[in-house]
Design a protein that fits this description.
Strand order of the largest sheet: 2-3-4-5-6-7-8-13-14-15-16-17-18-19
Distance between the termini: 18 Å
Helix content: under 10%
Number of helices: 3
């Protein structure tokens, strides 16, 4: 009974903690000035170290919100809890100037448990997007000297609850997430002239979102033999017009204008396909491809601000010997690669992201719970050479807690 109580109390305490820190910036990039900002990585634990894969991953020891069909892989006597935090070092360069920043924040918190023999529920809180930037410079136009500055903060969060049901002989599973998308994004700019007849123009924009979205997933397991399986996954996210409150306040030396906007803001249609090869307790090789149709999504009533976002990822996990005595043989070694094109469109240009990941899963006690450590390096390559070039290195630390939830010990 004590273990069951502890299993409930710990997630509740940490849930309250994460709510208190979600307003903190975990990114610092001028590209987050556009759209909803930098879109967050939704993979947990093992998947994050494997290039951010997850659509075709199916494990009884990991929570995987990338495909809600994966929840039903757990047995009927287990409780899962996962909590992750990250730290990031970023480098920026425009060819002349360079800058280095450090950021960190809680990444996600989630739990998963059976409701019935073939029905499993998962719930958690994770980021949807991050906004964080601050930059400016002094300029001279036709003898007029002025300072131009830009600043932004905030982001959107996603509280989800999902169900997965096994439809056929541990082979076919269906799942769905209902997500509560919430948060606020603030962008401001200022132009201040330094001439004798000084004047200025300031603009402040704020977007607040509160709405529900849906995700659907399907997974099929094809056994090759007693230890080897192929897993195929599909995901679908329907487009949604988001309930929002938006305003823009423009202030100058002579005027002050408040604009309340009822313009349309959308989340995009999304499709995903993933596959993995699994040798039980030994090897996993996985690959994902996903497409988000941002070009059809409105932002502030405009439909030409974004590009479709394509993401390709691949990765693997290897366990030397799960049941051997040497500790290093029982660790899970992971690596991965990823490619993503940006959804933002800056004067007809965007950027590409090239990432590589490396990580380990460190077993605790009976090899059921794990501390997961992942290291990620991403190169942000802009389409146009005068745009800002970014590099960042991120470390994510997570704890996956695996408990015998309904198991009763028999005392002799």
């Amino acid at each position: 009974m004590q273990k069951r109580i502890r299993s409930v109390i710990i997630p509740v305490i940490l849930s309250l903690f994460i709510v208190s820190v979600t307003a903190q910036n975990s990114v610092n990039s001028p590209y987050t000035r556009y759209g909803y900002g930098d879109l967050a990585n939704r993979s947990f634990g093992a998947g994050r170290s494997m290039g951010g894969t997850g659509i075709g991953l199916r494990s009884s020891r990991q929570i995987n919100p990338l495909n809600p069909a994966s929840y039903s892989s757990m047995d009927s006597m287990t409780f899962l809890f996962d909590f992750g935090a990250s730290a990031q070092m970023s480098w920026f360069s425009d060819g002349t100037n360079s800058q280095k920043d450090f950021n960190g924040n809680v990444e996600y918190i989630a739990m998963q448990f059976p409701l019935y023999k073939k029905l499993v529920m998962s719930a958690g809180l994770l980021p949807y997007s991050h906004v964080g930037y601050r930059f400016g410079e002094a300029k001279n136009a036709e003898g007029q000297y002025y300072t131009e500055s830009f600043e932004g903060s905030g982001g959107l969060n996603q509280l989800y609850a999902g169900l997965s049901v096994e439809l056929w002989k541990k082979r076919l599973s269906l799942g769905a997430n209902i997500n509560y998308l919430f948060g606020a994004i603030t962008n401001s700019s200022a132009i201040v002239y330094t001439s004798t007849n000084s004047n200025y123009v300031q603009s402040a924009k704020r977007l607040k979102v509160k709405d529900m979205t849906l995700d659907f997933g399907l997974q099929y397991v094809h056994p090759l033999n007693k230890t080897d399986n192929l897993v195929f996954g599909l995901t679908y996210t329907p487009k949604k017009r988001l309930n929002n409150e938006a305003y823009e306040q423009v202030t100058s030396t002579e005027t002050k204008i408040d604009t309340i906007s009822n313009a349309r803001y959308d989340s995009p249609t999304g499709y995903g396909f993933g596959a993995s090869y699994v040798r039980e307790n030994k090897l996993i090789v996985a690959a994902d491809i996903s497409l988000q149709q941002w070009s059809n999504a409105s932002f502030g009533g405009k439909n030409d601000l974004f590009n479709d976002r394509l993401r390709i990822a691949a990765g693997g996990e290897y366990i030397p010997n799960l049941y051997s005595r040497p500790f290093l043989n029982r660790m899970r070694y992971r690596l991965g690669l990823s490619y993503t094109n940006s959804y933002i469109n800056v004067n007809g240009n965007g950027y590409k992201e090239y990432g590589t990941t490396l990580g380990v899963g460190i077993p605790i006690s009976d090899n059921r719970s794990y501390i997961n450590v992942s290291f990620e390096y991403v190169k942000v390559k802009p389409d146009y050479k005068t745009m800002i070039d970014e590099n960042y290195f991120r470390m994510t630390l997570s704890y996956t807690f695996n408990e015998w939830w309904f198991f009763k010990m028999k005392l002799e």
